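Saturday, quiet lab. Running sequence design on the structure tokens for the scaffold JK sent over.
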């Protein structure tokens, strides 16, 4: 999928989760930022594609285990920055940060599993490639998913501001 699709779905899913876990708008804004980073982080392997053949969508970055590792890395970096700067970046619990980042990060390989190339989702436990029949650059599918992500984000904002259940 396109980066904007990963960003929209990651932010949408994780912001909806965050709206159930917190009630502070400042914390929500910070968590959405962390979710945005987490939704794009699995594509860090594309930085190495000029150096290594087939580096993009590597099992390490595009698997459930990889999502847990990348989300944990974000939380660890948050802890280090907060300790050094003596400030709270989100004003919330680290478990909430991990949950939101994990939801966002997992959405990335799940979306890529819809594409023709697919991903090795259950690596290192299985080498089976999960794939769909959608081209990564399909305009209709990407547009629908971006719209869905924005809708989820809107629902999260409505929940947080009290306009919805």
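Result came back. Writing it out in full:
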């Amino acid at each position: 999928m396109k980066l904007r699709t990963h960003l929209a779905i990651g932010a949408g899913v994780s912001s909806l989760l965050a709206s159930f876990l917190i009630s502070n708008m400042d914390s929500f804004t910070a968590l959405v930022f962390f979710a945005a980073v987490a939704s794009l982080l699995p594509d860090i392997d594309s930085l190495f594609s000029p150096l290594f053949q087939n580096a993009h969508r590597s099992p390490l970055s595009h698997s459930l285990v990889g999502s847990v590792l990348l989300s944990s890395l974000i939380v660890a970096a948050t802890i280090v920055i907060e300790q050094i700067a003596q400030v709270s970046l989100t004003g919330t619990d680290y478990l909430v940060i991990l949950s939101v980042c994990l939801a966002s990060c997992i959405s990335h390989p799940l979306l890529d599993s819809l594409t023709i190339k697919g991903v090795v989702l259950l690596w290192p436990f299985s080498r089976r490639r999960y794939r769909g029949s959608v081209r990564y650059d399909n305009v209709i599918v990407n547009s629908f998913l971006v719209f869905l992500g924005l809708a989820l984000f809107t629902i999260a904002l409505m929940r947080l501001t009290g306009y919805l259940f």
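Notes for JK: The CA atoms of residues 71 and 98 lie 6 Å apart. Residues 3-161 form one domain. Ask whether to fix the surface positions before the next round.
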